Amino acid sequence: MVRLNEIRTGEVAITPPEGRDAGLTYIGRIRTPWTDRLACPRQGRADGPSCRIEVFEPWIAALDGLGEFARIEVLYWLDASRRDLVRQSPANDGTTRGTFALRSPVRPNPIGTSIVTLIAIEGGILTVRGLDCLDGTPLLDLKPDRSLFTPIAPPQLGDYETGA
Predict the structure, then answer these.
(1) In this predicted model, what pLDDT tens digit does every residue of 68-80 receive, in sequence order?
(2) Domains in the chain, start-ordered, CATH in brackets?
(3) What is the pTM of this model?
């Protein structure tokens, strides 16, 4: 079980370098039933509770056409997360892995992402299922689920290949 600011056996925390502004703009807020990190699910579920995404002006106009998609990707800022662990033990079993090998919310830049089912859009309010973040989480971006798209161009000579 996760505890606030806990350092588990084998975990490594660092003093992060001085921050630089990436110029991020919060475009809305996410409303979920969870106000406590211990109660919040670790991964969103398609059968989870319906949640609201509130999009701020002037970004409401950017929602035009999003309703054509059954699933969308939601990117959000995990503002309650630590940012200083480079090795973590998510199962608290004594083994550790590097932060970039995990989907933990503890990250140098705590950007969360969920693929959610879009239930409805009414004005600047989206109703969705599949989120896994705290109530009031800042919204960074919305995109159609990339798995719904066919690549625009066929593979080209020199593209990375994974076969033999």
Answers:
(1) 999 999 999 999 8
(2) 23-147 (2.40.30.70)
(3) 0.81
